[in-house]
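Journal club side-thread
Mid-discussion, someone asked how the predicted structure for our own chain would compare to the paper's figures. Pasting it here so we can look after the session.
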Amino acid sequence: MTRTKTVSQHKRKPPEVSVFIGTRNVFADLGLRNPEETLLKAKLVIEIERLIQSKGWTQSQVTKELGIDRARTTPLLRGRLGDFSFERLLRFVKRLGQEGQIKMRPIKHPSATIK
């Protein structure tokens, strides 16, 4: 008697995976406009969220301390970067008791330029 194999018993070939070695800026890799600014804003939002969590603030406290209305708090905490300017994010950092510092250094890959 011949036994037939079901689909689950056959060895399936694993799907092919394409690997893309990107830069240190996922926004540039995705071809977004102003990737350098977007990356800086993303890093600021991550730090703002970390500081808020470390203080244990509620959403009401965030709105009060940062001087924004409740409708703006959610986009901030969800990382909607287009809703906030770089300067405004720096003001939030200051209101959280921190100061920002910008460091300048040579470009590692001269072909990577700011457009």
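Post-session note: The domain at 40-97 is CATH 1.10.260.40 (434 Repressor (Amino-terminal Domain)).
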